Amino acid sequence: MKRLYVKIIFIELANQISVFIIDQIIRALGHGAFGTTFQVVENTTGKECAWKRITITSDEDRRLAQLELKMLQRVRGDNLVQFLGSFEDKHEFFILLDYCDQGDLRKFLVDLKENKQTLSEDEVWNLLTQMIEAIQSLHEMDIIHRDLKPENVFLTGRNHVKIGDFGLARIAQQTQQYYTKICGTTVYFSPELMQDEDDDSSSGSDEDSNMANKKQK
Hints:
This protein is of the alpha+beta class. It has 5 helices and 10 strands.
């Protein structure tokens, strides 16, 4: 297989540049409005990583990719997917992330149902506690995720939770009391939020609402 040379700037190593050689793409993990993510192996370390490839076709695509990168560079926490590095050229934007080997929470729950298995109360509380701790960590960093759903809650090892996918996340300004734009994945909206969306539908041009609609396709 053709080797892919990706230059990575590590945030932990100030002013240093390392080169990752990705010579094995194992499989596609998922495809969304903002890019395709692959499970890859880095040649020099043998480490499995998640490699998100975003196709850039406009200045707006690049702006959104850079905005997601800004969020990832800010994120730090045991229950949050960690940023490893990034690289961009004229037509594509690459982000290297933690690989979560147990998939996402939606797949986990579907597998349980198909196998006629259930979680104990302790297991449920363990998952919920980790998710709450992850959200608390984000809020302490002034980050609002804005698209929390089972597909964005990932699992590693023995049900270790990591929240990821910060494509719609925003940094809250200290002077800002509320975020009034509606975004996210519609099927996970609360009834109250759906009512607000119907009331505001005449505005029509909200950028974040457009992005949310793209997510659903």
